[in-house]
């Protein structure tokens, strides 16, 4: 079931379950799988109370949820550019679905299709040095030019620098939040978050209205790692939350990269510790691209396999994306048969690089475009 086809009643049931106290992520996923839908869980709540050991608070909410709270959630979702992705939907991010602690639902602001792009997470110290910020910006722009979306946590310091650099270069960026999608933290990043919502995507597992709490950020970090093919740590102290992201990335089978620094810089010690523990020491973005390119290609193959049953079920599958949508046909016409960079294609087509990245992924999965390295594409 895709989110586009979900009924209003099913969406309301999902919102009810996501706000239910005492139901953890794993339990909620198991509940949905057993019951078949969120509506069925609510309709048979008494049946599941013993098996899933619902507490009194949970039962009280499921029997009589707060209608004003749920109405506010529905109103938030009704606005343009907002979406609830649930793990039982076809458009739930494929890589994130694979991790053991995948969130049952994601509240999204912006272009949800960007969540399917191959991503590199860039994380680091909030109090980063000038050199650390410069490195974050440089790596974000070079990795963006190579075709990777830049994922981070919207925090001060390295996170914000990476997001802003991607936006400035016209590349896709994804901000994973430790608050509800309508609560920007830190507040100084409101303008940055608005830019990301316009041409990238904001994503949170927390419902609207949820404020920042210390325990939210480790949870956010597992999403940053889970969405990405690899994590680059730019600067980090020994106690940095970025090391949590790196550890989670390693646990999830993702690649971990770290920039070395001066032995006199306390913000280099976390990176050096990661390197001693097996993270790859990198000095240029090309090293990351070389390591992740095969994984990105494998991701594309898995996504193609996943989308094939969906395409086969449609009456226009054989027509191809370009024939169904004039915008895709225009991109193919602008692309030609010689390799071309995203920047050149943006000039030819008049479309933004972030939009083009999303469209090129679809065309690549449809077998009409291939990536030839160096951030260049050509028609097949």
From TrEMBL:
Residues 84-292 form the Smf/DprA SLOG domain. SUPFAM superfamilies: MCP/YpsA-like. Residues 318-375 form the DprA winged helix domain. One of its GO terms (biological process) is DNA-mediated transformation. It comes from the Bacteria. InterPro entries: DprA, DprA_WH, DrpA_SLOG, WH-like_DNA-bd_sf. Belongs to the DprA/Smf family. This is DNA protecting protein DprA.
